[in-house]
Amino acid sequence: MIKTIIIVISVFLILTGFKTYKFLKENVKKIPKVSFEEQLKTYKELGYKLNSGITKETLLESYDKSDFEDDTWVLMYVTLGSTIEREPWTPITNDCWHFDAECIEDNGSYIDILENIKRISKNKLNFENIKDFVDIDNEKAWVSFELNGKNHKWNLRIDNDWVDGSLFDKIQELNSELKNPEKFSVIGLGQDAVIDFMTEKEMSEFKKMTNIKIKWLNGIKDIGE
Fold first, then answer.
1. pTM for the full model?
2. CB under 8 Å to 1, separation ≥6 — which residues?
């Protein structure tokens, strides 16, 4: 019986293999390679501004131009959201943030997250007096801050060094309450992601010009569980 099934499958592949290959070749959309310079120009047109002292040569300290062209659009986006790989670790742009979800190590970890969210929101989420507590061994964590004169304190879940994704849901809720036209967006890359802050119109234009499947950030589903 098994031998018969194998023969049938083999014959099917022989008869349809070329047709299948031809169909895929003609119908699967390929993302064309785009030069490093053209990608950087497009991101600048979308509003991504390099911080003071950062040049296109800075972006090439970690990757070759061919790397950007092989991973068209995505690697450039990741790089823009990163910091330079030397002191003083300056963010390359303040318009997006490349975030590693395995980042909770000790006190200060959640402070760093809120400071970066504040940065890419251009202070529309102007967190002040930020404090946190992280005790991985005893599975206890919290973050507190002041926003627009109101005090907030959120208890957070410990999962080794993984961030509690519900933090980002709480941030989205706060942002909604403030009625900001922008929302936080994300492209997931495994344990890391690029987080952004944009309007619906900006998201539409971003998708159109980069082909990146960006979406609105749903924290507990997109970052940590």
1. 0.84
2. none
Q: Are 36 and 69 in contact (CB under 8 A)?
A: yes
Using CA of residue 58, residue 63, residue 64, residue 66, what is the dihedral sign?
negative
Are the beta carbons of 128 and 144 closer than 8 angstroms?
no
Which H or E run includes 73? Answer: none
Total residues belonging to the chain: 225
Q: How many helices (H) does the chain have, and how many strands (E)?
A: 9, 7
Strand stretches in the chain, DSSP E: 96-100, 128-135, 140-147, 150-156, 183-188, 192-198, 215-216
For residues 188 and 201, the answer to whether their CB atoms sit within 8 Å is no
Q: Which residue has the higher pLDDT, 201 or 1?
A: 201
CB 156 within 8 A of CB 162: no
Q: If we measure between CA atoms, which residue out of 185, 191, 189 comes closest to residue 219?
A: 185
